[in-house]
Design brief:
alpha/beta; 3 domains
Length: 943
């Protein structure tokens, strides 16, 4: 501390002797929340020196506190008792009052009246008791300073203070925000909530609109319940305030200038949101219930369907998109984020003002599913942030049949996981529509102000069972005995408005009849719906419709321009010091560009990106190590050895080039792959790639593959050109670092839903990546990318292969064999080809032809037949793979190969050469691995 500050502190009378304990506690309060201490103390503590290099948003921390207390203790030791004493009983009680105020801000939510049913078990909170703070009823009329609790009123009686705290923090809203580190955010919430005691006085128009929205929400459920009794619809009964919540949210983000809102939600209330929020025509919904709906694909159940529409807000037209969602509940969350980021990027909006993500969750799912944590962890990362997500938990207080908290979760609230990113959490009683309206406004305003995630915990109930055919009282008898007697939210609110003279009984009945008439007409019931939407708010998919796998496009590229781009891609800024091994890679690539050295995998892949960028195609590449590449082959992002700065030459090929986005991702597979799927379904003109660190890591994202990537087009008509690079190869690295589980992807292949390829040369990956975006066909691509082939001396190509070639689904025999001498055919894919060729050369075998199948699905039967048709004397045909028999391509692809060999000679039998069936993907012992590898090579070649 500076000498002047010490002098000032020493000479200040209230810091002397017996006051130290009081000041210590006051300073502790200040460190926690500056607003909790009187203004003069706040100003004084604010003059203390800040910690060097600390967060400028934070208050002084331990080093300053220690200096401050040291001086105070020195005063006490020197016996400075001649100065004024302020540690009287009153001063101590004043401090206790500040502590009480702080306690309510921290823990008032634990005593809030959140449960419409009144059966939620709440723990006693000693901090909220007067006696805990050494206060009593005798102090109720005493006047104390209030800090910032009252606007424009610096003092109040303890009775007034406690009443204000109870009104603000312990009624229909339980606000959790004191866990946030940023002081500005905490102050913002305090001012917004305390200024109106968490209960703004809304006008008659707003109240009438709330009732109208509740009437719509309840009216649809009643209508469907009477027209389709017992049919599953996962109704919103008990949580009807979700509809006015969504209405306010959309209108308010529109006021802030948002142009799009992307919504993800599971089953509960989905049909209600479709009709009453997005404006789906009730007649279309009734047709689906009646089985009259027609699809040009397999379709999906009603409560999984997506929808889009445009609505009018005070800020203009807003496009709404409800994402398609499978039964895997929370998996839609990262998909929504990816779609939002794509839309923001298209609008050149790095802040997130124009597109808002809204994820609607169930309480058990939000607490229980790990993808929620992964998605939250994305929220402020460079590659995945979307300017803050508004999370809404429709908290039914019960899962399917499980309601005991100790079974559902280990935390007090289902929303506690959101505290990991310091998201504010606004718990609200779903039977108090005005409180729901207020927290919605708070959430939208917070997101707009701070660009961070925020959670609304809509505490409600489920009037029926998990679905309308389920009897809930079998497992929740006590809860449902209460629910049977519980009036609906609309009934309660209508009575409140009627009693206060806002609406009449006739008005209430007219609302009901008007809505029912609108439903029966079958036309949309959303008044703000734009019937002729602005087409500029939509993505144009028309160029990508109506294509099949016969669609072709040239992937050739001018050789001279290729060399220019190759040289440009190896440039680094002046003074940028590249690491020694990386510099060697750049030097080698310059030689490759000159044609002086064979082209390897890293060069070819990099040039695929460079040439696409040159032709106007944007690229997004993410994964855990994509900048360098897990196996050090890419080095798309280089790091300055002097100052740690980074440089990506692919972002600087020419002026006005498309974006090349490359981000090392968080250590997640499920959420990241879901994000990239959402991104790819929103940007058809972009090459979107996710690379697994090791191919088998994609196992953790299998649900994304199962329920979105492989089936999204067939279920929902959603086209997607997402590319997955999955390193795969048996290099003796054990079970978890060998197989990308090729069999799982092939098992999901049907009806030309995706592409599965195993390229073995640099030119193949070059043309495969270019084909993926140049060809107007949009199908997911799974690439079993290699590891050892990245630097294999035989896995090389030439500049001419890149400039003049194309992706070949079948690579025929490359040696000059006499077709009449060939008596044995070996089919294979991937790295094992080079092992087979090496052994054939060693053994000087001229009777064996080796054919590479580079695309396993859609299986190229005609191309394979063309590659073997000249071998008329073949007696034996083998499929060779490195994977165990129950894995790899054998079971999924043998029928394709048999059809082809049968055409060549009906008497030929396709046999197997590979590892024996195994529960594990590979051997963990190198000796065993080599023994198995030797045997499968012998079996394939007939040695």
């Amino acid at each position: 501390m500076h000498e002047g500050s010490m002098e000032q502190l020493w000479s200040t009378s209230q810091l002397a002797g017996g006051n130290v304990a009081y000041i210590e506690e006051l300073y502790e309060l200040y460190l926690t929340d500056p607003n909790s201490v009187p203004e003069q103390w706040r100003n004084y503590f604010g003059t203390l020196p800040r910690v060097e290099g600390g967060n400028t948003n934070d208050t002084p921390h331990t080093p300053i506190k220690e200096q401050f207390l040291l001086i105070a203790q020195n005063q006490r030791r020197l016996g400075s008792t001649t100065q004024a004493q302020v540690s009287s009983g009153y001063d101590q009680k004043q401090l206790r009052v500040f502590q009480l105020i702080n306690a309510y801000r921290f823990r008032g939510h634990q005593h809030a009246k959140l449960d419409p049913l009144g059966i939620m078990e709440r723990e006693q909170v000693p901090d909220l008791d007067l006696r805990y703070h050494e206060l009593s009823e005798a102090d109720m009329d005493s006047v104390f300073q209030t800090g910032s609790l009252f606007m424009g009123k610096e003092e109040a009686t303890l009775s007034e203070i406690r009443d204000a705290l109870e009104e603000t923090y312990c009624q229909s809203i339980g606000a959790e925000f004191m866990h946030i580190v940023d002081t500005a955010e905490k102050r913002w919430f305090q001012q917004r909530i305390e200024s109106v005691r968490a209960k703004p006085d809304y006008g008659e128009e707003a109240k009438t609109h709330l009732l109208e929205r509740l009437t719509a929400a309840e009216g649809l459920e009643k209508f469907l319940g009477s027209k389709y009794p017992g049919v599953k619809r996962f109704g919103l009964e008990g949580g009807e305030t979700l509809i006015p919540l969504m209405d306010e949210l959309i209108q308010r983000v529109g006021t802030y200038g948002a142009k799009e809102v992307v919504i993800g939600m599971a089953h509960r209330g989905r049909l209600n949101v479709l009709v009453n929020t997005l404006g789906k025509a009730p007649g279309d919904l009734f047709d689906e219930f009646d089985g009259k709906a027609t699809f040009d694909h397999s379709g999906d159940v009603k409560y999984h369907q997506g929808f889009s529409s445009n609505v009018l807000t005070p800020g203009g037209e807003v496009h709404l998109a409800l994402a398609f969602n499978p039964s895997h509940l929370e998996i839609v969350s990262p998909v929504v984020e990816g779609s939002v980021r794509a839309r923001q990027d298209r609008r050149n909006d790095p802040v997130g003002d124009t597109v808002v993500p809204v994820n609607i969750h169930g309480d058990s799912a939000f607490a229980g599913q790990g993808v929620v944590m992964e998605t939250l962890q994305m929220s402020q990362t460079r590659g995945y942030k979307t300017g803050g997500t508004i999370h809404i938990v429709v908290n039914n207080q019960v899962g399917f049949t499980t309601s005991k908290r100790e079974d559902v979760r280990s935390t007090e609230y289902c929303t506690d996981v959101a505290k990991m990113v310091q998201a504010p959490i606004l718990h609200v009683n779903g039977d108090d529509p005005e409180a729901v309206l207020f927290v919605t406004q708070l959430a939208v305003d917070y997101r707009n102000e701070f660009k961070k995630d925020v959670v609304i915990d809509l505490v409600c109930y489920r009037r029926r069972g998990h679905n309308e055919a389920d009897e809930p009282s079998a497992t929740q008898p006590l809860m449902y005995s209460v629910i049977k007697k519980q009036p609906t939210t609309r009934t309660l609110y209508a009575k409140t408005l009627q009693d206060s003279g806002v609406v009449s009984e006739d008005h209430i009945k007219k609302m009901e009849s008007d809505y029912r008439d609108a439903l029966e007409s079958g036309k949309h019931v959303v008044k703000s719906l734009v019937t002729k939407p602005n087409s500029q708010l939509f993505v144009d998919w028309s160029p990508y419709l109506g294509h099949d796998n016969s669609t072709t496009a040239s992937t050739k590229f001018d050789l001279k321009r290729l060399q220019e781009l190759a040289n440009k891609a190896q440039e680094v800024p002046e003074g940028f010091q590249v690491q020694r091994q990386v510099n060697k890679i750049l030097e080698d690539r310059r030689k490759m560009a000159a044609g002086a050295q064979p082209i390897n995998w890293g060069f070819a892949e990099t040039m695929a990106y460079a040439t696409l960028l040159d032709e106007g195609y944007p690229i997004r590449l993410t994964g855990q190590d994509v900048g360098r590449g897990t196996f050090s082959h890419r080095h798309a992002v280089m790091h300055n050895q002097k100052d740690g700065s980074s440089y990506c030459s692919l972002q600087s090929l020419k002026e006005d080039q498309p974006t090349f986005t490359i981000h090392d991702s968080l250590l997640s597979e499920e959420a990241v792959l879901g994000f990239e799927y959402g991104y790819a379904t929103t940007t058809p003109n972009m090459l979107v790639i996710w690379e697994a660190q090791f191919g088998d890591f994609a196992n953790g994202a299998q649900v994304v593959m199962d329920q979105f990537i492989s089936s999204g087009e067939h279920k929902w008509g959603r086209l997607c050109g997402l590319t997955q690079l999955l390193p795969h190869g048996y290099e003796g690295q054990g079970p978890e670092h060998s197989s990308a589980r090729l069999e799982r992807y092939l098992q999901l292949c049907a009806e030309h839903n995706m592409q599965v390829c195993v390229p073995t040369t640099p030119s193949q990956i070059f043309h495969l990546l270019r084909r993926q975006v140049i060809r107007p066909l949009r199908k997911p691509l799974v690439v079993m990318s290699p590891k050892s082939l990245l630097r294999h001396k035989q896995a090389v190509s030439t500049l001419e292969d890149l400039a003049e070639g194309e992706f070949q689904t079948i690579l025929p025999e490359t040696e000059e064999l006499n077709p009449k001498d060939v008596t044995r055919l070996v089919f294979c894919s991937g790295k094992v080809y080079y092992d087979l060729v090496d052994r054939r050369r060693t053994e000087e075998m001229n009777n064996v032809a080796i054919i590479r199948i580079e695309q396993l699905y859609p299986f190229p039967e005609e191309e394979l037949y063309a590659a073997i048709s000249e071998y008329s004397n073949v007696k034996e045909v083998m499929w060779c793979q490195e994977e165990p028999m129950n894995q790899g391509a054998w079971y999924s692809s043998q029928h394709h190969m048999r059809r082809v060999t049968h055409r060549l000679n009906p008497n030929l039998y396709l046999d197997y050469a590979g590892r024996q069936p195994s529960a594990a993907p590979a051997a963990g012992y190198m000796a065993l691995h080599l023994e198995q590898q030797e045997q499968l090579i012998k079996d394939a070649l007939g040695l």
